[in-house]
Write a structure and sequence with these properties.
By secondary structure, this protein is mostly helical. It is built from 19 helices and two strands. Helix 5 (64-88) crosses helix 18 (430-445) and helix 9 (181-206) runs antiparallel to helix 14 (315-349).
Length: 478
């Protein structure tokens, strides 16, 4: 096989479907509602409790609700495409595996490699946001951490050295995921229920304190700061949409657990659509309520939702939200750590990364080696990096994956229209094209630093693939 042929070799859909029926690497223990809880757990989190307020203050004003809507449209189009593939190819690996089936090995490797970094960085972002709410809850009861342990080094917050709480929670979730999947899934379902109840409390109580004057102007006039950085205006709404985008996906993490699902072809598509629909309704409602009860320029804090209710004198709501966020954000960490470890496992199982990582624990039936490695990496990043810096780095890999998934639906519909599909993306080619178009637009709105890190990571990935993956690929031996 020549060099170019190796780059585009792929696993036929029929081969993947046959493997799915024979594989026994994982234990099939997840039902529809556990999968949906993983999806909601991955979507609802730092976007509601942290970034909605921060992006209203920094970029969008009250129009942050439009930012979530814009990001949600792109995410919904991609979700419909994910749902088709989830029913068609019920194999762990999500976008990586789908790309392998349609676009070939190099494209699949790059998507898997990118998602590995993206998911890990999302874990770090959420862990930092989680730490802010833990500290807010502790402060409310008179417990104060030493300054050095409150966060990463930041010129604006002298004395800080390392976010100890953020690092500890990533290690804890990594340990949880090392044990039986159903134990973690049951815990995750519980914390998702707590989180949904907290969001309902924010909406149900906050709606009575909304002051419509806080929504005026809805889209603040664009201004340029002394540092030359511009904020607000419709460009600010678009910038906020690009930043909060990672808050409106997360359903893709549940597709990485395909081989742990009891009935993947039936339940995965349903769980994808259910989790996104429920979560988007919550995001839009919270964005409107939050900017209605507090002026947007007061929301750039570590715990904006809790602080907004403190400003109203509703300290019991603030404390309840902080405590609920403390529990609820754990489910986001659970979802993305699960997704990252399963993608790492899939890459290793296919020979593109060392096979040492493609072993499940003999007692617990989990991919413990990549899970532990990810826990250590994310702990270091979460402890040593400010949240805004990490948030700027995420999204690009997932947006790229969305383009791949939407394009692959179009290609496979043309190439193999006869394949039986448990779920069919409606309005093809319109829906996939919407997903592709919005994803490209959001990519164009990402900061330059995101692109620089992305190109460095892709370059490193190419070196690893050409030096190791291409020669050790399982397809090389066929």
């Amino acid at each position: 096989m020549d060099f170019l042929s190796k780059l585009v070799r792929h696993k036929p859909v029929e081969m993947l479907q046959a493997e799915a029926g024979k594989r026994g690497d994982f234990r099939r223990v997840l039902g529809l509602w556990q999968l949906t809880a993983i999806g909601i757990g991955g979507i609802i989190g730092v976007g509601v409790f942290v970034l909605a307020g921060q992006q209203a203050a920094l970029n969008a004003g009250p129009a942050v609700v439009l930012s979530f809507l814009i990001a949600g449209i792109a995410s919904a189009a991609a979700a419909l495409c994910y749902a088709e593939f989830a029913g068609l190819i019920p194999v762990t690996g999500s976008a990586y595996t789908y790309g392998y089936a349609v676009l070939g090995e190099l494209a699949a490797w790059l998507i898997g490699w990118d998602l590995l970094l993206e998911y890990a960085l999302i874990v770090a972002v959420v862990a930092i946001g989680w730490s802010g709410y833990v500290q807010s809850a502790l402060d409310s009861v008179g417990i104060h951490l030493p300054v050095w342990a409150k966060g990463a080094m930041n010129p604006e917050k002298p004395g800080q050295v390392f976010d100890v709480i953020a690092a500890l929670i990533t290690l804890g979730v990594s340990a949880l995921l090392t044990f039986r999947t159903e134990w973690g899934a049951r815990f995750n379902t519980l914390v998702v229920a707590i989180k949904v109840a907290a969001v309902a409390l924010v909406i149900g109580v906050g709606v009575f304190y909304v002051n419509p004057s806080n929504w005026v102007p809805f889209i603040p006039e664009r201004v340029t700061g002394a540092n030359g950085v511009s904020h607000f205006g419709f460009s600010g709404v678009a910038t906020a949409a690009a930043v909060v985008f990672f808050a409106v996906f997360g359903y893709d993490t549940l597709t990485t657990a395909a081989e742990e699902s009891k009935n993947p072809q039936r339940d995965l598509p349903r769980a994808v659509l259910l989790s996104l629909g429920i979560s988007m309704a919550m995001y839009l409602a919270v964005s409107l309520v939050l900017t209605g009860i507090a002026h947007y320029d007061t929301l750039n804090t570590d715990a904006p939702v809790a602080d907004a209710f403190k400003g109203l004198g509703l300290h019991w709501v603030a404390l309840t939200v902080s405590v609920s966020a403390v529990f609820g954000l754990i489910s986001v960490l659970f979802a993305f750590m699960l997704g990252a470890s399963r993608i790492w496992y899939a890459l290793a199982r296919d020979g593109l990364l060392p096979g040492w990582f493609a072993h499940v624990h003999p007692r617990y039936g989990t991919p413990h080696r990549p899970t532990i490695a990810l826990g250590m990496f994310t702990a270091l990043v979460a402890g040593s990096t400010p949240i805004q810096k990490v948030a700027e780095l995420v999204n690009i890999g997932v947006l790229s994956a969305f383009i791949v998934i939407c394009s692959s639906v179009l290609i496979l519909r043309k190439r193999k229209p006869e394949l039986p599909r448990a779920f069919r993306t409606p309005l093809v080619p319109l829906v996939p094209l919407i997903g592709i178009g919005f994803s490209i637009w959001l990519l164009s709105e990402l900061p330059a630093i995101t692109w620089k890190v992305f190109l460095i990571w892709v370059s490193l990935g190419m070196v690893i693939y050409l030096g190791y993956g291409m020669r050790h690929s399982k397809l090389e031996k066929l």
